[in-house]
Amino acid sequence: MGIRILGTGSYLPEKVVTNDDIAKSLDTTDEWIFSHTGIHSRHVAGEGESTSTMAAEAARRAMDAAGTKPEEIGLIVVATSTPDYNPFPSTACIVQGLLGCDNAGAFDLQAACAGFVYALEQARGFVNFYPEKKALVIGAESLTRILDWTDRSSCILFGDGAGAVVLGNDEAPGVASSKTTAHTILGADGKGAHFISRTGGCRNALPFNEMGIPAKSEPEKPELVLMGHDVFAFAVRTLSKVARDLCEKLGTTPETLDRVFAHQANGRIIEAVARRMKLPLSKFWLNLETTANTSAASIPISLDQAVRAGELKPGMNIVMVGFGAGLTYAGTYCTWPNL
Ligand code: UT7
Predict the structure, then answer these.
(1) Which residues line ligand 1 (CB under 6 A)?
(2) Which of 229, 66, 50, 235 is nearest to 143 (CA)?
(3) Cα 199 vs. chain centroid, distance in angstroms?
(4) For ligand 1, what atom is nearest to the CA of residue 295?
(5) Count of domains in the chain?
(6) Catalytic (active-site) positions
(7) Is residue 141 part of a domain?
(8) Domain membership of residue 231 as a residue range
(9) DSSP letter string over 69-82?
(10) pLDDT tens digits, residue range 94-119?
C-alpha cells in the first residue's frame, strides 16, 4: 500500500572497454586501475546511442516489469550530468517523445552522482499528490563522451549506462506520506564545488561589443577536473554518515539493513564505508568491476540487477546513498519496494 516502486529496468551498452584496452594508448595498467579502484572494464555508448536512448531503453524495461503503459506516466525525471543537448532541450523531453508518454511532464535534474536519489524524492512528492498518475525516475549517463582520454587519473573511472524505476501510489492524495517507512536526506556542500567540476559553461564574462551586448565567442574546450583525494575523503565520510543518520532517524541501527545500494565510484570507498558502518561488504551491492562509475545511473542499475537476481525482495530494509559533484549527497532508507 502507499507509494511503491512498481518495476525496475536498466540498460548497459554492448560495447565494453577493458583496462587493457585503455593501457594500449595510456601510461597505465590493469593492475594499477583494479588495485586502486576495483574496476576491470566499463560499458561505452556506441554509435547511435546517447543518454536519451539508454534512458528510454531502461525505462521501457522498467515499465514492462511494472506492467505500466506509456499513457499512465504523468512525470518523467531524468537525473543526468551528460544530457544529449547542453542545456536544452532536456533529455527527459526526448525520452518522453521516444516512449510516447504523451501525458507526462518531463524535466532533467542535475545533482551529479547523487542525482537519482534527488530525482526519486521529487517523484515521490509528485505521486503523493497525484496518486492517479505514475512517475518514471531515470538515472542515465554517457560520461565516456566528456572525458579527457589522455588524463589517466580520471578517464579510467567512468562508464555509460542507465537505470529506471516506475513509481506508483494507491492511496488518496497526501495520505501515503504519513504511512511510509521511508526517510530521505538531501544535502550539499557547495564549498567543495571545485573538487569535481567541468570547465565551460556560462559563468565567464564574455567580451562585450560596442552595443553593450556579449559578442559571440567560441566555447572553451570543456575539461573534467577531479581532485581525487578530496573527493575520496568526502565520499567515505558522507556516505557512512548519511546511512547512519537515516537509521537513527527511523529508530534503528545499520545492522538491521539487508542491503546497501551506495553510489559506486571506487571499490575502496565502499570498503571504507562498510568498515565505518561495521557492516560486512556482502551487504553492499557491487558491480563497478564491470560498470565503473556510471554516476546518476549507478544506483538504479544496481537496484535493477539486484531485483532481477532475486537479491532484492519485498520487505528488505535498504539504504540507497550517493554523493557527487556539487558537492551533493543524498540517501533514502526504505522497506523495499515501499517508499
Ligand atoms: O563520482 C565521483 C567521482 N570521483 C571519485 O569518486 C574519485 C575518488 N577518488 C579516487 O577514486 C582516487 O583518488 C583515484 C582513483 C582518482 C586515484 O587513486 P589514488 O590511490 O588516490 O592515487 P593517487 O592520485 O594518489 O596517485 C598515485 C600515483 C601517482 O603517481 P606518483 O605521483 O605517485 O608518481 C599518479 O600519477 O598513481 C599515479 N596514477 C596512475 N598510475 C597508473 C594515477 N592514475 C593512474 C593510472 N595508472 N590510471
Answers:
(1) 28, 32-33, 36-37, 113, 152-153, 156-157, 196, 226, 228-229, 231-232, 235, 265-266, 293, 324
(2) 50
(3) 21
(4) 1
(5) 2
(6) 113, 263, 293
(7) yes
(8) 183-196+223-335
(9) -GGGEEEEEEE-SS
(10) 999 999 999 999 999 999 999 999 99
